[in-house]
Design brief:
Largest sheet: 5 strands, mixed
Helix content: 55-70%
Low-confidence stretches: none
Distance between the termini: 34 Å
Structural class: alpha/beta
Number of strands: 5
Strand order of the largest sheet: 3-2-1-4-5
Radius of gyration: 28 Å
Mean pLDDT: 85
Order of helices and strands: HEHEHEHEEHH
Strand content: 5-15%
Number of helices: 6
Length: 283
């Protein structure tokens, strides 16, 4: 049986951990509010530009730009958005569980965002062509621009014949859905979901000029929207996980205090018995 000193030390240790988890929960909650607002406000624009490009991809100008070219699939690129830090519950494991069945084979190359995602696939021997770290909680539009430029260059050069984007879609701190969408070539099913018409389009001054501006903006917008969704998902998962950890710490403290009182009472009883036994022996 542990001594009262050992139990007191463990109670102190658990209380220190509880203070850390409580502070992390409060920090995540403070950041989540702004991240949630940005994620929700960006969603309609992201969905609309996907629908517009989906409609164009199904029209007669689909071959007017290299990013709309449809080729035989030999190499696939997967852009996977994850977390830079841990202590976010099942956030990272949920996205990896969704992605792993889709990235089997030598023809799949990965582009990772976040240290946790990078380390997970690197340890398992996957091909990682690009890795982006250090901004999973606070992404900026420039981060999306950089990634979109790299992806567009690789697709145009024929390094990838199709590109997918995997991220966590945010609905609430306890409702986060891992999602995989096709970035390139543009998926024509998005137009049907949004009710966007497909068919003939008129472009001024020319289709090449309009698509040359619109397609990079499409990539940047969709990637940025996914970054915002992932940031809110990461913070929501961390807030929920740290809240659970704080509650579990309180439960553990209560059990340790109860155990401490039992041990202390047993020690007192034993000491009284020894005193009484000693007194009886002196008679």
């Amino acid at each position: 049986m542990p001594s009262t000193r050992d139990i007191r030390r463990r109670i102190k240790s658990v209380k220190n951990i509880q203070q850390i988890t409580k502070a992390m929960k409060m920090v995540a909650a403070a950041r989540l509010r702004r991240a949630q607002e940005r994620a929700i406000s960006s969603r309609p624009y992201t969905e609309k530009i996907r629908a517009i490009l989906s409609g164009i991809a199904g029209s007669n100008v689909a071959a007017a730009h290299p990013l709309l070219a449809v080729r035989e699939v030999r190499k696939t690129g997967f852009l996977i958005l994850g977390a830079d830090k841990g202590l976010a519950g099942a956030y990272t494991s949920n996205i990896t569980r969704e992605v792993v069945p889709k990235v089997q084979g030598d023809s799949v190359h990965l582009l990772t965002v976040g240290r946790k995602i990078r380390d997970y696939f690197k340890r398992r021997g996957y091909k990682i062509d690009q890795q982006y770290t250090g901004f999973s909680e606070r992404p900026t539009y420039q981060h999306a621009v950089d990634m979109a430029r790299d992806i567009a260059a690789a697709y145009t050069a024929g390094e990838y014949d199709e590109v997918y984007l995997a991220y966590s879609q945010f609905f609430s701190p306890v409702n986060i859905k891992p999602t995989v969408i096709r970035l390139l070539p543009v998926d024509t099913s998005a137009a049907k979901k949004e009710g966007e018409q497909t068919g003939n389009y008129l472009f001024e001054p020319s289709a090449e000029d309009v698509l040359g501006l619109l397609l990079p903006k499409y990539l940047e917008t969709v990637i940025y929207g996914a970054l915002l969704q992932s940031a809110a998902s990461e913070l929501g998962s961390r807030m929920t996980a740290m809240g659970s950890a704080t509650e579990n710490a309180q439960d553990l403290i209560s059990k340790l205090v109860l155990n401490y009182n039992k041990v202390r009472q047993a020690n007192i009883t034993r000491e009284i018995s020894e005193i009484v036994g000693g007194a009886e022996a002196l008679k």
